[in-house]
Amino acid sequence: MQHSNWRKSIAALTIAALAGAGASSVGANEEYPTDEVNTTGLAVTDDTVEVGILHSLTGTMAISETGSVEAEQLAIRQINESGGVLGRQIETEVEDGASDWPTFAERASSLLESDDVAAVFGCWTSASRKAVLPVFEENNGLLYYPTFYEGLEASPNVFYQGQEATQQIIAGLNWVHEKENADTYYLIGSDYIWPRTSHAIARHHIENELGAKVVAEQYFPLGHTNFRSAINQIRLKNPDVVYSIIAGDSNVSFWSQLNSAGINADNQTVLTNSVTEDEVKAIGAENVEGHYSAMKYFQSLDNPHNKEFVEEFKEMHGEDSVIGDVTQAAYLGPWIWKRAVEKAESFDVDKVREAARGMEFDDVPEGYVRVHEENQHLWSKLRIGQWQSDGTAEVVYESDLIEPDPFPEDVDIDPDEME
Amino acid sequence: MGGYTTSEIATIMAMQGIAGLSLFGVFLLMALGLAIIFGQMGVINMAHGEFLTLGSYATYVVATMFESYAPGLFSYYFPVAIVLSFLVAFGVGYLLEYGLVRHLYKRPLDTLLATWAVGLIMQQIFRSIFGGRGVSADAPDWLQGSIQLSQMLFLSRSDLFVMCIAIAMTVIVSILLYRARWGMRVRSTTQNRAMANAVGINTAKVDRNTFALGCGLAGIAGSAFTTISATTPTAGAQYLVDTFLVVVLGGAASLLGTVASAFSIAQAQSILEFFITGSMAKVLTLMVVIGIIMLRPQGLFTLKVRQ
Questions:
Q1: Chain-chain contact of A232 with B282 (C-beta, under 8 angstroms)
Q2: Nearest CA in chain A to B230
Q3: Does A40 fall in a domain?
Q4: Alpha-carbon gap: A379 to the closest alpha carbon of chain B (Å)
Q5: How many CB atoms lie within 10 A of CB B234?
Q6: Residue B304 and residue A199: Cα distance in Å, rounded?
Q7: For residue A92, what are the β-bridge partners?
Q8: Pick from A117, A213, A263, A359: most CB atoms within 10 A?
């Protein structure tokens, strides 16, 4: 008997000690018991929660997606350092989509079905997003998608941190139209869904709202390196504004050939929404100097939250790293998820989604954003940056907050045809 | 034609003609190496594009070295870069022939697969060393800007540079092939290997040098292309299809054919691009080329040999 009492008291002491420890470090578990915050079988324990990162770490898209992975990891680290989510540390499962869309779908189902992650931060190209979309909808997962894109989509299983096409295009066109008093526009882009949809929206706005004229609309395959014909067209048609949505490495050829043909900011206004700090690094600042990019974020934004973000990003990923629009948008993903989970007091996808609607953030690097009540895109501002000789952009214009409108009316776009 | 006046059409033709000449330089330069490897030896080298990339990266490295160690001499880095690109690509090509390709001369389909694999391996090596992000060497001052020929006509210095290199290389290769003893050995090996062996030509050595020379030429092309586009691990692979097209259309064993076909494809594409979108111009050019090859499978120019 004596013996068993002794045992009991040890057990009681142990429990007391555990409870004490719990109260000091993982006290949230009492406040938010696992079986209450997680009713759908996600990978949530008393002190951890698992999320996924799904980007291309290898292959041709690795260039662009690396920045997003770095930003998401930074956000997750900061969240963990500040105490985690509902008292739980975030554990990250990183999967490689390998620039291959079926691989993306396969990795997504492994994340959602085997790992039961609470949320996934990932994808970059529209093609990869379209590939994983059925997987997310079937498993009722959550995807936080960072890239500016063509719109025409609003899935309840996706939060879109990047701007959709109308947010990126219309305010920018209005600005350049007024500034240049422009009557003629030359549209050029890479030949796939995003530039084509964007130009359809741009053309509609130029012709119907601005009362100006599109003198030509040119498309080249991705990776194209010969823009001499386009440059000749620009020279002959002499448009007031050249509007470029050329994606990826083609930018290097386009801008350097433009510059070496003697077309520069002194004699031609060029506005683009596909050149961020990342691209400028490869293009060479001397080739884009004086031209304009329309984005919601530039690394040079002058506010304390951005300065802190840039500093911590460089500390984590190296002094030479640059932060483009998409990288900043990727950084927002984990924060939007964390805040929604805490508001919902639950990791359940349906509750997180409800909680996120209309949520406001005034401490993010780009300044202020608000989650749209219905389409899960972000209200955001558009900024025009003028490229400087050191590869940074000087913000010369900032719009009001723009409502995301992924399905613009009266623009003649057939999404099926575009795909 | 799309509401242009006659004088505008004339200007367009002149402008596009010059743009076509620039493209001709690019096509010719990239096809030369393949004209030797595929044209003379009949080896389908799927890694040809990667040798081009190798030359580009070698040039990038030389430019970076000059920038950090001898900024005063930066304007003159290009000659060094070209020679080095050639040597590096030649060396790797030599080893590739010795280690792999020579064992597969009698199995052309296996050569295709094996060299494709080599191309993939090289791409991944570039990616591991230089990263996936595109790099570009700053062009020296004398390669920037353009020469104004008239109010509307410009020729950029970098295009002129590529064209000059292309023409110089074509002249050198044609002298090597048709005027030098080396070329005679190459051609006799191509035409009748057994007989060439019998008269004392070391055909194995000829093969190795020919293959390496083709790779070296690709290296020079890659070096010159750094002035007009970015260098990424897959940059060269994007040229591969066009390159085969030029060589096949020209007639595999004919250098003159390669020149003629590079010129016509470049001009056709360039003129078409002005009036329809770039993507459609490419489709149309490809269709015409396929049509011609269907009618003349041997290509535009052929050697008259006894079959």
A1: no
A2: A252
A3: no
A4: 31
A5: 19
A6: 53
A7: A51
A8: A117
Residue A409: give the domain boundaries: 166-295+384-418
Rounded (10°) angle between helices A304-317 and A62-81: 110
A vs B, Cβ pairs < 8 A, gives 112
Q: Do B144 and A260 touch (CB under 8 A)?
A: yes
Residues of A in contact with B19 (CB under 8 A): 228-229, 231-232
Q: A62 and B12 in contact by Cβ < 8 A?
A: no
Partner residue opposite B133 with nearest CB, options A59, A225, A282: A282
Separation of alpha carbons A390 and A371, rounded Å: 34
In angstroms, the CA A292 to CA A172 distance is: 10
Cβ-nearest to B156 among A218, A225, A257: A257
Residue B21 parent element (H or E): helix B6-34
Measured from the Cβ of residue A304, the count of other Cβ atoms closer than 10 Å reads 9
Best mutation target among B279, B280, B283, B286 (most A Cβ atoms within 10 Å) is B279
Q: Is residue A39 part of a domain?
A: no
Look up the pTM and report it: 0.84
Query: Do A329 and A390 fall within a single domain?
Result: no
Q: Is A15 in CB contact (< 8 Å) with chain B? A: no
**ipTM higher than threshold 0.85:** no
Rounded Cα distance between A194 and A148, Å, is 9
Q: Which of A122-131, B34-43, B147-156 has the highest mean pLDDT?
A: A122-131
Residue A412 exposed, middle or buried by CB count within 10 Å (0-12, 13-18, 19+)? exposed
Helices (H), B131-254: 157-178, 181-191, 193-198, 203-225, 237-250
A288: Cβ contacts below 8 Å, ≥ 6 apart: A255, A275, A280, A387
Of A224, A232, A282, the CB nearest to B278: A224
Candidates A226, A236, A278; nearest CB to B23 = A226
CA distance B136 to chain A (A): 6
SS3 A55: strand
Structure tokens at A156: 């309840």
What is chain A's Cα-based Rg?
Answer: 24
- Closest Cα in chain A to B149: A261
Q: How far is B127 from chain A (nearest CA, A)?
A: 9
Confidence grade of residue A415 (pLDDT, cut at 50, 70, 90)? low
Are the beta carbons of A300 and A414 closer than 8 angstroms? no
State the residue for tokens 């004229």.
Answer: A213
A67 shares its domain with A119: yes
Residue A94 to residue A296: CA distance in whole angstroms: 27
| CATH assignment of the domain containing B158 | 1.10.3470
Which chain A residue shows the shortest CA-CA distance from B268? Answer: A229
Domain-located, residue A43:
no
SS3 (DSSP) at A202: helix
The answer on A276 and A171 residing in a single domain is: yes
CB within 8 Å: B156 and A230: no
Q: Report the run of H or E that residue A269 belongs to, with start and end.
A: strand A269-272
